[in-house]
Amino acid sequence: MSNEKKNEEKNDEKSMHELESKYNEQVTIRRRKLSALKEEGKDPFDVYKVERTHTSQEVKDNYEKLEGTQVIVAGRLMSKRVHGKAGFSDLQDRYGRIQLYIKIDAVGEEKLKEYKSFDIGDLLSVTGTTFVTQTGEISLHIVDFQLIAKALKPLPEKWHGLKDPDLRYRQREVDIISNPQVKDT
């Protein structure tokens, strides 16, 4: 075996070890957050039923009728861009994604701090009013939210996802969450 191949294998092993280490670190952090929630008297797994009024797709399809009205959607937090006193997120349910907008004026400082502590993959119920952003995307302006369930394991990396076919078959549920094409099939 050539030195080049040996070095390549060592680099692959090193990068796999680094990825595994980061994954374990994220799981540990999420478990600490779960413990902190329980210490505060908030059990994120005691919500048995969520009253939602619309799905993400219903909000988008019926925006003309729903403009400015309050709706309740539920789903998985797929991205979060919250800086300072406001931010945007994406919530995914079984029918699609919808953009969320949160602002300190609408929810208060404590609720914004709680929202910032959520991880990608957490399940939420969100109450908000419908509006269109400057870029033309139909969104919800959050007025209230509730944590339905805490995600203890991180989702696959956004850009690369699950590439190994064997892993995709063994972790079908994760593949469906992270790859919209697989879900559609």
Describe this structure in words.
- With 185 residues, the chain is an alpha+beta fold.
- The chain has three domains: 1-43; 46-149, Beta Barrel (OB fold (Dihydrolipoamide Acetyltransferase, E2P)); 155-185, no CATH class.
- It has helices at 3-39, 56-61, 63-66, 104-107, 109-116, 165-170, 172-178, 180-184, and strands spanning 70-83, 86-93, 96-103, 123-132, 138-149.
- A five-stranded mixed β-barrel has the order 1-2-3-5-4.
- Strand 2 and strand 3 (96-103) form a beta hairpin.
- The radius of gyration is 19 Å and the shape is globular.
Gyration radius from CA atoms, angstroms? 19 Å
Number of domains: 3
Number of strands: 5
Which regions contain 5 or more consecutive residues with pLDDT less than 50?
none
Judged by helices, strands and strand pairing, the structural class is alpha+beta
State the CATH superfamily name of the largest domain. Nucleic acid-binding proteins
SSE topology sketch:
Blueprint lengths: L2 H37 L16 H6 L1 H4 L3 E14 L2 E8 L2 E8 H4 L1 H8 L6 E10 L5 E12 L15 H6 L1 H7 L1 H5 L1
In short:
The chain has eight helices and five strands; from the N terminus they run αααβββααββααα.
